[in-house]
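Async update (no meeting this week)

Hi team, since we skipped the sync, here's where things stand on the single-chain job. The sequence we agreed to prioritize is pasted below, unchanged from the tracker. I ran it this morning and attached the output directly underneath so nobody has to dig for it. Comments welcome in thread, and please keep replies under the output.
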Amino acid sequence: RDTIIEIFYEKHLGQLIDVITASCPQEGIAQSASSGGRVESTKPEILSNICELLCFCVLHHPYRIKCNFLLNNVVDKVLLLTRRREKYLVVAAVRFVRTILSRHDEHLINHFVKNNLLKPIVDAFVANGNRYNLLNSAVLELFEYIRKENLKSLVKYIVDSFWNQLVNFEYLASLHSFKVKYEQVFLLPYPNFTSSLPV
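Output:
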């Protein structure tokens, strides 16, 4: 079993990631068939299956995944799926990120912040607008998870980096609660004895 896992990580994981990068539009290229079909040569179902396999690896081989992801910018490459026109592939990328964050690994969390890795997800959420669909739900659930698990560096990163985009969605309970969490943690860190704030 260990030998098979070793072979998979050494020889095949990179190939799966290459399939994703080769199947996604480059930055600035429209997500349409106008690119000549080259970027969509792999069936979307296969890309979705690769995401599921990566999620399995994150949960069952966290140390191997962590080293591989950090060394090879795997998260960045999987998030290229947010450029696909199939919404369920964008959702697959969001769930992949959610699975990584469930490990509560500080190195990976810092990697997200340092490399601005949530930008593609926020951009996809904003572009989705007011549509209530799987993409909307997946991103809101991701934010809710970050808030409930008190992943402070991510809370700060998201509000500091993206609130100008997200403020239009503050009417949504989960985003309102997210902003309140940010204010509680970063704007009111110490009691203010000069004023009486409501409890």
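Quick observations from my side:
The mean pLDDT is 88.
Residues 1-23+42-187 form a domain with the Leucine-rich Repeat Variant fold (CATH 1.25.10).
Reply here if anything looks off.
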